[in-house]
Design goal:
This protein is about 35% helix and about 25% strand. The termini are far apart.
Length: about 190
């Protein structure tokens, strides 16, 4: 509590509110830099793999390895072909999020590898929304008419996020034949662009 009081004094905040405390925390511990969305390059390969695996394994207990996700070792060859792409979210030089769009043909795409570091989730930072907005804008510009995704039962916050962004839940049988279903995926969504 003393740390919070001294930080509030340091930042000249007389009124104590949850919003004020969150703002001070962000400035002091997470940096005050802006979130930047960039197109992936292989210079970020290890950091992307580390982020994704940490979220999958440590945070959600999903027993999946890098070897079971060969796309993470070959991002340009897997995602950045045809009209697909892969983006990273960064604050300063730290990668805090990822998202990709896989071109599966027929003006359809798969949203894959959407991950945000738990310290940067939520409306305060807007990382997930910035990543998704970038992907949707790209998809529309490239002429995609539908975006599909699959997710696990454990990603309930992600499911609510997709639903708030107009993704509609569909049955597995409604997926296009070219959609790459992951073994852990049990819920599926579609967005008409």
């Amino acid at each position: 509590m003393m740390i919070c009081v001294s930080l509030l004094k340091k930042h000249c905040l007389k009124k104590v509110s949850l919003q004020n405390i969150q703002e001070v925390f962000k400035k002091e511990y997470l940096g005050s830099s802006e979130v930047n969305i960039e197109i992936y390059t292989d210079i970020n390969k290890k950091d992307v793999a580390d982020l994704v695996l940490h979220i999958q394994n440590a945070e959600f207990g999903i027993p999946i390895t890098l070897e079971l996700q060969p796309d993470l070792n070959e991002i340009p060859a897997f995602y950045q072909i045809n009209n697909g792409n892969f983006w990273i979210a960064k604050i300063d030089d730290k990668i805090i999020g990822t998202i990709s769009l896989l071109d599966i043909g027929n003006c359809q795409a798969a949203l894959r590898k959407m991950f945000v570091d738990k310290n940067y989730r939520g409306k305060e930072f807007g990382v997930g929304q910035k990543l998704l907005d970038t992907l949707i804008e790209w998809a529309r510009h490239k002429g995609f008419t539908e975006i599909f995704l699959g997710t696990t039962e454990k990603f309930t916050r992600a499911q609510r996020f997709y639903e708030k962004n107009d993704f509609k839940e569909i049955g597995k049988q409604e997926l296009p034949a070219a959609f790459p279903v992951m073994e852990v995926d049990i819920k599926f969504y579609r967005l008409s662009t």
